[in-house]
Amino acid sequence: MDPDFLNVFTLPVALDQVGAENNIAQGEKRKLIKPTSHNNPKLEELKLLLIDWINTTLKQEHIVVKSLEEDLFDGLVLHHLLAILTKDLLSTLHLLIAIAKHFQPNLAIPPNVRVETITIENTSRGLKTETAVEYITDIKENLEDQSTDDAFDELFSRAPDKLDAVKQVFLQFVNQHVGKLGLNVKDIESQFADGVILLLLIGQLEGYFLNLRDFFLTPASTTEMLHNVNLAVDLLTDGGLLNFSVNSEDIVKGDMKTTMRILYCLYSKYKAKET
Prior knowledge:
The chain is mostly helical. It has two domains: about 130 residues, no CATH class; about 130 residues, Calponin-like domain (Actin-binding Protein, T-fimbrin, domain 1, Orthogonal Bundle), CATH 1.10.418. Strands 1-2-3 form a three-stranded antiparallel beta sheet, covered by helices on one side. Strand 2 and strand 3 form a beta hairpin.
């Protein structure tokens, strides 16, 4: 189905959010929280926590914030810094969380808060919309997840001499499973970029068959590679294996750290089953 056909039905709701005073100029893009996400209980919890934090911090100034969109827009709370956000709740939340983390690192910000966003672009052919899911707060669910990320940061920045050893562990793990399909992986950086090996590995480990019509077995373009990787990320997320945000383009570009983190998600679950 033509995506532009669906835009006819989704566009009016988005434009109501923008408002007549905020018409989008040609060539401009603007990302907004979709109306359906405003009812997200976790989002409401986050907004209430941030409002409480602001009011507690500014109590001596006799400033009371009731609405993040309205009360921060006039510049009274954060002066002119937030004036450029034009009551953009998404940007306001990102900024407030960054400030809160900096000045009060122990603030109990709820994890895994995400919203559906819609990006509207005024092109020469008319208005174009694109939807996505964006995390507002960290998606790490526990300290173990945090330590895993820190371990890979440490590995790449301070222990590069151990990197090859870790690669070999992952390669042995991968080949043990995709070898049953007659495949052999020698280079993590290049052979996972098109998403094919990753999809086949997930299928082998999770015990299901991937319909060849759902992905490109021999991708001929970056778009097809990205499709494969996006599918793999979706499968990992749906299976509860992925506990961090992934930019699929990083894998297509051969980003070693991102690829190894994804492999670790699979390795950490299935290594015990091999012994």
